[in-house]
Amino acid sequence: MTYDRLVCANCAAPVTEGRCPVCRANRQRLQHEGPLGGMSPAALMLLLAVLVAAVALLAHQTA
């Protein structure tokens, strides 16, 4: 899940707005999760499908 859709349990505002210290801390943590941390599940599945297709293509070319 991307953090732009999260709602803070402390202040009931979107986390991206950073209205309270809890929002700001979670926003900071989510931004530094890594390169794949902010990707949506659909984007991750697409990336996985592309990688599987590339490996299958390489295996087919070497055979």
Q: What can you see in these coordinates?
A:
The chain is 52% helix and 0% strand. The longest helix is centred in the C-terminal third of the chain and has 22 residues, at 41-62. The relative contact order is 0.13. The termini are far apart. The protein has two domains: 1-32, no CATH class; 39-63. It is mostly helical.
Describe this structure in a few short sentences.
It contains two helices and no strands. The chain is mainly α.
Task: Please give a handful of descriptors for the protein shown.
63 residues; mainly alpha; 2 domains
**Strand content range:** under 5%
Count of spatially separate domains: 2
The residue fraction in helices comes out at 40-55%
Q: Write down the overall mean pLDDT.
A: 83
**Helical/strand content category:** mainly alpha
Number of E-state strands: 0
For the terminal residues, how far apart are their CA atoms?
Answer: 39 Å
Question: How many H/I helices?
Answer: 2
Task: Give the biggest sheet.
Answer: none
Report the uncertain regions. none
Radius of gyration: 18 Å
**Coarse shape:** rod-shaped
Order of helices and strands: HH
